[in-house]
């Protein structure tokens, strides 16, 4: 009983300090909108390396996870294709401890020839492959 009360007091102090307390379930979906192209993705967090996956045109790759207690979960993906050989490094989920989050429980990414969209909002273009020599 005393341990439960102690845990409750600590949790209340964290809430009062503005520290995130979360265990929300989140799904990330990567949708290949690159016409007639295969897309390769490699997603990982500090604790989970999901490996490389090849996604056909109009197909998806998805994964889900629970945001850690402190709200510090962060997943990023390296994404390439035949017409975009320079890997794009895209943070596909950033927990509430990092400030404003672009998505909560559903992070639907569409990868298009001109860049990356999250839940219909343009987020970033493909990296430039221009030769600077």
Automatic annotation (TrEMBL):
For this protein, the record's InterPro entries field holds: Self-incomp_S1
> Which compartments is it annotated to reside in?
Secreted
Q: Which domain of life is it from?
A: Eukaryota
On whether Cell inner membrane is a keyword of this UniProt record, the answer is: no
Q: One Pfam family, short name please?
A: Self-incomp_S1
Annotated transmembrane regions:
none
Which range is the signal sequence, renumbered to this chain?
1-18
Q: Does the keyword Nucleotide-binding apply?
A: no
Question: What does the UniProt keyword field contain?
Answer: Secreted, Self-incompatibility, Signal
Give the record's family classification.
Answer: Belongs to the plant self-incompatibility (S1) protein family.
Q: Which PANTHER family match?
A: PTHR31232, S-PROTEIN HOMOLOG
- What is the name attached to this protein's record? S-protein homolog
């Amino acid at each position: 009983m005393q341990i439960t009360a102690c845990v409750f007091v600590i949790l209340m102090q964290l809430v009062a300090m503005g520290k995130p307390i979360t265990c929300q379930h989140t799904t990330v979906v990567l949708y290949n909108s690159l016409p007639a192209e295969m897309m390769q993705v490699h997603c990982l967090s500090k604790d989970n390396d999901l490996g490389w996956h090849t996604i056909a045109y109009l197909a998806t790759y998805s994964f889900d996870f629970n945001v850690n207690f402190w709200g510090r979960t962060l997943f990023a993906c390296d994404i390439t294709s035949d017409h975009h050989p320079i890997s794009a490094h895209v943070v596909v989920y950033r927990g509430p401890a990092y400030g404003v989050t672009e998505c909560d429980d559903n992070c639907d990414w569409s990868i298009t020839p001109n860049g990356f969209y999250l839940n219909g909002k343009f987020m970033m273009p493909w990296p430039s492959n221009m030769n600077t020599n």
